[in-house]
Every structure is written in C-alpha cells, then in structure tokens.
Amino acid sequence: MAKIIAGIGSSHVPAIGAAIDNNKMEEPYWKRVFSGFERSQQWMRDIKPDVAIVVYNDHASAFSTDLIPTFALGTATEFPPADEGWGPRPVPVAKGHPQLATHIAQSVILDEFDLTVVNKMEIDHGLTVPLNLLCGKIPPTGHWPFPIIPLAVNVVMYPPPTGHRCFMLGKAIKKAVESYPEDLRVVIFGTGGLSHQISGPRAGLINSKWDKNFLDNLSKDPVKLSKIPHIDYMREAGAEGIEMVMWLIMRGALGEKADEVYRFYTVPASNTAVGHIILSARDAKAKAGKSKMKRAAARAKADVRKSK
Ligand code: DHB
Ligand code: FE
Questions:
Q1: Residue 12 near ligand 1, beta carbon < 6 Å
Q2: Which CATH number fits the domain that encloses residue 210?
Q3: From CA 195, how far away is CA 211, in angstroms rounded?
C-alpha cells in the first residue's frame, strides 16, 4: 500500500529561482533565505521519498485566462519547465508518475471532486522553486530525485477554491494514495504564500503574526484553518496571500494528526514572507518508514531554527 508520510510547505517566490540560476545564493540577502533550507535538504536526502505530489499554482504559464481549471492533476510522463519570459529555467524536466497520478484522478473524481486531468503541461516557478529549495540546484542535464505529480490549483483568477474545499481534497488524496497497491512512500508539497501583495495600494503587505499563527495551526488546529474565508486571507495576508489555501490540501492529506518536524520563516524575499514547514503524518510514522522518519526528524530538530 502507498502511504503519504510527510507534508512540506514552502513559498515559491520567483526571485529565489533567479537567485539560484544566476549563482547569487551566497549573497547575504539570499543566503539568509537558503540557509533556512539546509536542514530540509538533509531531511529530504534521509527520507528518500518514492514520489512527490506537488500542489502549486500556475501563474498564467501553462494556462491563461482562456482556460482556468480549479484543480488540474498532471498525469503525463514528464513536465518541462515553462518559459516565463526569460526562457525556461535551467532545471531538469520533471518526470511524472502516470500510474499513481491516474489512480489518484480516478479515486478522487469518483469521490466527487471534479479534477481536470492534464496529459500535457509545462510547469512554472510555482513548482520548480520549492523543488530547488528542498532538493538544491540541479542542472537541466540532471534529474530531480523523485518522480513528481503536479496538482495545479487556481488561485490567480476569482473565484479560487475555498480553504475547506482544499482541505477536503487533501483528505480524498490521502484515501486515493492509500488504495494504491504498490508500497510507495509519498510526500506532498503545499506551496505558495505566505503573506504578500504584489500590486495595488497595499503592495508590499506582509503580516508575520498571521503567517506564524497559520504555521502553528497546521499542527495544532488545521480544522480551524480550513474554516478561514477568502476575505480574511485577502485582508490579513494580502491579495496573493490566497495562495496559502494550497497548503491546506497538503495538510488534509496528512490525516488527523501531524507533527511539526522543522520550520523556517524569514521576511522578505522579493515582496513575500518566506515560510517553510515540514510535517510528518502521525499514522504514517506508525506504519511506514518509522525509523527513517525518526532519524530524519532528530537530525532536523538538532538544529531547529524556530522563529516563533
Ligand atoms: C512574488 C511572489 C509570488 O508568489 C509570485 O508568484 C510572484 C512574485 C514576489 O514576491 O515578487
Ligand atoms: Fe505566486
């Protein structure tokens, strides 16, 4: 049986990708951001997942205002990086996992979540930047360390899905993964956020109190987070803060209880509060990869930088 063993939340600020591509990672401004992910990269190497489901949003790269799927699941064998205006990022093509992806599509759609199935799709910074943060800089001739199932969520054109719908979809994804017969250890990424607003009179808005409360409640009270209405994200976390609903798909997929393994928060990168969290699924610890998970968590905890 496949199992979702952990969830990873990470911002996806495009300027982080540009800093990687242009070898600016050692500059003090960027080192502050990248240093918060060193432990996470070690954790990722220790955990060695078989597959990653990456919940992210497309920024008018694969889709346009012509066609806006609310939830689009990538079932292709590969997903090339999109040209976002400066040519495709120099990162590897992401290899998919069509067998697990089509199984998830079937299970979730029969569970009455109307996913769009995407057999051809390019991926933008929403997906490639979190992968870099967790896996490091990998040249286009290399490979990401695991196959990737992209799940694109519309958070760029009104109306995005509610946080509650996202949370429920996460639960349906957990059920889908657990009904897949092969023993796969799966991680799920929730990406985007945290608070930021890119345009308009409130451009530059960051709300650290809101962000930290959101990070706290991912383990303490995710049901409370799932009830936050759109207007509160907009008011408190800025127009683009609505990206945070994607973290609730990740959280819903971890089951009732999840334990915080590691967290990092810094302000700002570009216009955005950078938030990152690793959560282990409590029931998964009991059943799958217990010792690996324990060892990786101990390593991460040994050097925790909790900026609570
Ligand atoms: C920025 C952040 C984003 O999430 C994004 O998609 C584009 C820009 C920024 O901080 O500039
Ligand atoms: Fe974004």
A1: yes
A2: 3.40.830.10
A3: 7
